[in-house]
């Protein structure tokens, strides 16, 4: 509102406030100011509209530019050739090294039992003693055995006397039969007498056979008793070490049931190991092996496979294998825990690839092989996992280049650029 329009309004009000005044003041017409206010509102709306249109235009332009940038980036990604790092596939070693737990045993071990009944008269060895074959271990006394031997010898002498008597009777019957048979033929003796003489001779001959058999049986009995007498001296069956003793002087022993000693031959250690089925093929006599004991870390004990079972264990699918290890200084003891390294000749070819090259997805296990700048996805079968490397049987061949840590979206037939080749250790 302007100043000219305000003043008449004030004068008109003043005239109304002074009733004694006859002058009437009229207010001027206020229409022009209202028209000017409408023009200002229209101008303000037009300006806001122009600003809105301008903002929409700028936003649309920026969106268009962003779409162009995304399209350009997508095209660049689709047409770009990625750089990859590869490693060469190498052939597996001609021998498989297998490490398995095992337990050492003596090459020979025998539990010695009493073979005759009696009392221990004298014990000559104890635990830990080394003995030679035939060495005396203990003496058993059995006085009743001596009496049995004396009785058997007397019976033998009696049987021998009976034999002599029977032989004399046989000789007499033979002479009588020879003389009387001629007289029977001449008619001087009856036929009955001739039959009696002949049958008497046969009976005497049979009696001689019985006497001879009795003598043979008695002699065998004496030999049995003599062997029992010999068993009173307990001797070592082979060279070895006494590892157990169960008797002492004065102990009562019973033939066939009393356990006396355990003797082991430790100069050669026999180690039994059970080899899994996937590694058993190729194992045979002569395969090299090394035995190691955790308590002797600075020494290894070489040996060779000497015996294998003809069949695998049904429950565990393992092959029982025995390894003989020379032990001349006695460093190894029977019954200790050890590990056995076997160097088994490989029967089927295999390849070694880095574990970083293996991809596992919905299509299974595979690797990406680069050939002439093109990636090819090859399915593989892992035989063994060594951690940083894996052993495979198919899908690749020695010399192939496999991509390390391939991209997730790498497709079969995609073009790639080999950035570098990682060198792997040689066989």
TrEMBL record:
Domain Multidrug resistance protein MdtA-like barrel-sandwich hybrid spans what residues? Answer: 109-258
- Signal peptide limits: none
In terms of Pfam families, this protein maps to: Beta-barrel_RND_2 (PF25954), BSH_RND (PF25917), YknX_C (PF25989)
Indicate what this protein is called per its UniProt record.
RND family efflux transporter, MFP subunit
The annotated regions of Basic and acidic residues compositional bias extend over 1-25
Q: Which GO terms describe its cellular component?
A: efflux pump complex
Keyword field contains Transmembrane helix:
yes
Q: Species name for this entry?
A: Bradyrhizobium erythrophlei
Annotated stretches, region: Disordered: 1-38
Alphabetized InterPro entries for the sequence:
Beta-barrel_RND_2, MdtA-like_BSH, RND_pump_MFP, YknX-like_C
Q: Which UniProt keywords apply?
A: Membrane, Transmembrane, Transmembrane helix
Give TM segment ranges.
42-61
């Amino acid at each position: 509102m302007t100043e000219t329009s305000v003043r008449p309004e004030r004068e008109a009000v003043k005239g109304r406030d002074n009733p004694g005044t006859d002058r009437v003041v009229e207010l001027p017409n206020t229409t022009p100011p209202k028209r000017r206010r409408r023009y200002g509102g229209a101008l303000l709306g037009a300006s806001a509209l122009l600003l809105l249109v301008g903002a929409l235009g700028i936003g649309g332009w920026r969106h268009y530019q962003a779409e162009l940038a995304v399209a350009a980036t997508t095209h660049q990604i689709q047409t770009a050739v990625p750089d990859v790092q590869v490693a060469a596939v190498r052939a597996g070693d001609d021998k498989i090294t297998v490490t398995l737990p095992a337990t050492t045993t003596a090459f020979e071990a025998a539990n010695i039992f009493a073979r005759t009944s009696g009392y221990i008269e004298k014990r000559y060895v104890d635990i830990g003693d080394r003995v030679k074959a035939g060495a005396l271990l203990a003496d058993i006394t059995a006085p009743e055995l001596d009496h049995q031997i004396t009785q058997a010898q007397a019976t033998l002498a009696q049987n021998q006397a009976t034999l002599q008597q029977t032989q004399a009777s046989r000789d007499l019957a033979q002479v009588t039969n020879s003389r009387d048979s001629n007289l029977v033929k001449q008619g001087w003796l009856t036929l009955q007498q001739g039959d009696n003489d002949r049958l008497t001779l046969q009976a005497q001959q049979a009696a001689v056979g019985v006497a001879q058999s009795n003598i043979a049986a008695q002699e065998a009995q004496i030999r049995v008793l003599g062997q029992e007498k010999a068993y009173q001296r307990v001797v070592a069956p082979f060279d070895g070490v006494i590892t157990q003793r169960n008797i002492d002087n004065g102990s009562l022993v019973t033939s066939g049931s009393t356990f006396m000693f355990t003797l082991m031959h430790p100069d050669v250690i026999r180690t039994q190991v059970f080899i899994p089925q996937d590694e058993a093929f190729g194992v045979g006599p002569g395969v090299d092996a090394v035995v190691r004991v955790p308590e002797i870390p600075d020494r290894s004990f070489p040996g060779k496979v000497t015996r294998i079972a003809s069949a695998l264990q049904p429950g565990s699918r393992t092959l029982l294998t025995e390894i003989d290890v020379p032990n001349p200084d006695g460093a190894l003891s029977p019954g200790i825990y050890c590990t056995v390294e076997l160097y088994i000749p490989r029967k089927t070819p295999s390849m070694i690839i880095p574990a970083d090259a293996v991809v596992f997805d919905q299509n299974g296990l595979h690797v990406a092989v680069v050939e002439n700048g093109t990636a090819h996805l090859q399915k593989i079968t892992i035989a063994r996992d060594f951690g940083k490397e894996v052993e495979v049987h198919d899908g690749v061949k020695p010399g192939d280049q496999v991509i390390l840590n391939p991209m997730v979206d790498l497709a079969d037939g995609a073009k790639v650029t080999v950035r570098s080749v990682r060198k792997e250790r040689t066989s």
